[in-house]
Design a protein that fits this description.
Elements lengths: L4 E4 L11 H11 L3 E3 L6 H14 L5 E6 L4 H13 L2 E6 L3 H4 L5 H5 L7 E4 L2 H11 L3 E4 L19 E5 L18 E6 L9 E5 L12 E4 L11 H4 L7 H8 L4 E4 L5 H6 L3 E4 L5 H7 L2 H19 L2 H15 L1
Parallel strand pairs: 1-2, 1-3, 3-4, 4-5, 5-6, 7-8, 7-10, 8-9, 10-11, 11-12
Helix pairs in contact: 8-11
């Protein structure tokens, strides 16, 4: 059946090759799915490409795509092939209107109403989208894969906490030094002001950057006290890529108790949840060395799966089974 499975390719540039969306596309390639790449050419060649797609792709084929779609032409392709009777599958990698105030939710996902099948991040994301577009046939991916091989690192229970990510979108970073009982290690492509208890590590890209510390922090927003502001609320809906990154590096996780993935972290014993970053010193002291090492071993089970594309592959197979049924 794979010869009748296609995907809209949008992340083939050198700049995007380390993105998790590009790695989803790599898994498509490994499965033998055929990429659909809109040509950068003159009007007539583009029109010919669109027409040839409509007539060459068999009815009932499967078309995967990753939302958000950035090329408007790809939305046209989806509409054409959907009208022909193809099965379109949306992998929801993000909802921009949850992250950016200026983005309209209704405008962003209006075109999704015609899509037949979905792969959502998690239960909460599914509930959010289906409230807008109605109930669909779907599965949840749980977390995103990162196809990088990471050497095992010895971890010890210390007060060193890692934050790896885009600091420009996380104003709370500049307040972290106020929690003096924690040694913070900030990994980002931009240097920030250092303090006696805060080290800024600058790296260019990729997820194979070694992370030195004992815990990985998942937090959003403007304050170290809570995630009540707009950008902080984002955590209540998504499966953060930081979670995959920390587990890939066998780092136990610290996450807000209201985050969409907080229950997952607790149930799998790979970290703990908090309501304020000021709780971290007390939490660390309360965890025995044996309890910490158990968390580390549990993260390593996920590390192997994440690095081999397990979660994406499982979700792809599950939605294909639903299509065949």
């Amino acid at each position: 059946m794979n010869k009748y499975i296609y995907y809209l390719k949008e992340f083939g540039s050198d700049e995007a090759r380390d993105s998790f969306q590009a790695q989803i596309e790599s898994i498509f390639d490994k499965n033998g799915f055929k990429p659909l790449v809109y040509p950068r050419a003159n009007y007539f060649r583009r029109f010919f490409y669109l027409a040839s797609l409509y007539f060459s792709i068999p009815r009932s084929s499967v078309i995967f795509f990753i939302h958000p779609l950035y090329a408007k032409t790809n939305r046209i392709i989806l509409k054409w092939l959907g009208r022909k009777g193809c099965n379109t599958v949306c992998i929801v990698s993000d909802i921009n209107s949850l992250r950016f105030k200026e983005q309209s939710t209704d405008e962003e996902i209006a075109y999704l109403k015609s899509i037949k099948f979905f792969i959502y991040q998690n239960k909460r994301m599914k509930e959010f989208v289906q409230a807008k577009i109605g109930e669909k046939v779907s599965v949840n991916i749980e977390m995103f894969d990162l196809l990088f091989s990471i050497k095992e690192t010895e971890r010890k229970n210390t007060n060193q906490v890692v934050f790896a990510g885009n600091t420009s979108k996380c104003p709370f970073i500049h307040e972290l030094h106020q929690i003096e009982a924690v040694q913070w290690r900030i990994y980002s492509d931009t240097a920030i002001k250092e303090y006696p208890n805060l080290v800024s590590v600058v790296y260019s890209s990729g997820y194979d950057q070694p992370l030195s510390g004992s815990y990985g922090l998942i937090w959003e927003g403007e304050s170290v006290l809570d995630i009540s502001n707009f950008s902080g609320q984002y955590l209540k809906w998504v499966s953060p890529l930081k979670l995959s990154n920390y587990l890939l590096h066998s780092l136990p996780v610290i996450i807000h108790k209201d985050a969409a993935m907080a229950d997952f972290v607790i149930e799998n014993k790979i970290g703990y949840s908090i309501s304020s970053l000021s709780e971290i010193p007390g939490k660390i002291k309360a965890i025995s060395d044996n309890e910490y090492q158990t968390m580390v071993e549990n993260t390593r089970k996920f590390s192997e799966k994440i690095s081999t594309g397990h979660f994406t592959q499982k979700a792809i197979q599950a939605i294909l089974n639903k299509i065949r049924d």
